[in-house]
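Subject: Sanity check before I submit

Could someone independently write out the structure tokens for this chain? I want to compare against mine line by line before I put it in a report. The sequence has 340 residues.
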Amino acid sequence: MEEWVESYLEALAAKKRCSPHTVMAYRNDLMQLEAHLTHAGITTWRVVVPEDVTAYLQSLRERQYASSTIARKTAATKSFFQYLKQEEKVETDLSPFLASPHVDRYIPHAITTDEVTRLLAAPTRVRTPESVRDAAMLQLLYATGMRVSELVALDLEHLDLVAACIRCQGRAARERMVPLTVAATDALQRYLAQSRPVIARVHGADTAALFLNHRGQRLTRQGFWLLLKGYAQSAAVRNVTPHTLRHTFAAHALTTGRQLRDVQTMLGHVSISTTQVYQRLHAVTTVVTVPMTAGALPALNVVKMLGGGTMAARRPRAAGGAAATVPVGSDIVEGVAHED
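---
Independent answer below. Compare away.
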């Protein structure tokens, strides 16, 4: 049974160009299904009937799996049986008999600009090659909204400091050029001039990767997550994941007047409806006036943003010392299905 799963996963990666993380998730889902069927005495996919699969999905509900997890496992199972039918390995495609569970609409989480300020400042409290690197990575994530998988996949050749932009490869190998803020550009320049050469002195260092770990190899997603967790704790910022900075970038960008299409392009969303989740925040009408500097985001340190949205904020009157008016208070977020 495992052999057919592996052939499906190979086709998933080659033909549908799914990311390694998607393939890994589908492998785990299908191997869990296989284990359930084997325990029930089923040793070949040819004899599986809809009742066998629904019994498996019901067992997940009884074990209190999240509806989103069950929905993903259902999707993996349906896709797998569609593949088996197309390859003529089974007589019947079971996917039409499997109902997808209702999934609560996704609610993104973003942090305030006061929390962003504390988080971005956390690596600068010490001066080491690693802290300079970390400051550059955090600035880059907040400036671009890129995924952490995209961040750690960056090579030196993807960065153009003269043009202040970076080439990012997203899902399904889709590439996009993302502009950089002044703060991100400065942080990257410091890293390349002061930090990376020191880290890269170790024997066998990766010469292509933009961000290196202390062994001189490409930094991993897990490595970045541990770094972020430590800085969030030191900055007293709660509930922060790498994806939180992506949500925060989008929410703050739209709040400060960025066009929806521009944010969609920067995030690499295929569907604009995915980006529109950040417009669905309803804030109370209390407003404050905060100072604005040229090219900067407004200091929304009094606005608790649980997701992006239309804040009904008046745009800044002019650059360089002008003022922006933003709403203050607790926000209610409408969640929608997400592409991330």
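---
OP: Matches mine. For the report I'm noting this point. Residues 2-97 form a domain with the DNA polymerase; domain 1 fold (CATH 1.10.150.130).
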